[in-house]
Amino acid sequence: MNTVPPDSLTFPVTLQRHAFGPRLVPHAGDVWRAMQDVVVDQSSSVGWTPERYVQANTMFVVRTMTVRHHREVRIQEPLLGRTWPSRARREMLFTRQVRLFSGEELIAGATQEWAYLSRDLQPTRASKDLFDAFKMSEGYPEIELPSFVANGDQPLHVFDFTVWHGWMDPHGHANHAAYVDYCDEGVARVVAEEGGDPQRLVPVAETVHFRAAVGAGELITVETTLAGHVQGARVFKHRVLSGEKVCATATTVRALVD
Question: pTM of whole model > 0.90?
């Protein structure tokens, strides 16, 4: 079965050196950033550049994103990204698929849920020009987390940090991929406390549900707990909070390389 629309466009992707850790493989958050680049390239290719969204006083923001990693990317490995919108609701909510390939090999896939908003974060309907620019391709598989065996009650691990002003993205808040970095730091601290090497962590899958933006100067708390296990990997649950406000909830699936 064809898992990618044959007429979906292909965009070259090369992860830069700063995306790679000591094992010369990228962090999960940087795979997310590469996927975001593919989406921006596809939008620009049909005339909707980042500048045009600013002129229209609108933007897309991610509500939920789920990613499966089939293997880690090698440094300087050339990739090909493909993306297509697969569903729309009320011209305000959109589902998009993203896939990263190395040649014909699938490296990672994502299903994204986007909301179309005004620049002051109010839901708005897409204009006819915008809606007609993107061709919907339905009927292709979506990305889901693997099922897992749940653990009993486990300790809660917590750390705090203050968001830097230099971390703001073009929308003036922390980019959605940064939340994966926050969660992975929580997992790394759990592994380090156990006496393990956090650099051996391998991303298997993750999903993040975004509930509120994170802005510069905010004190952020990241909660992490071991939730279960699946096929040699462990499953962690996370909450990202600003005070009592829940900014995101997430599930990450991580293995340790031998």
Answer: yes
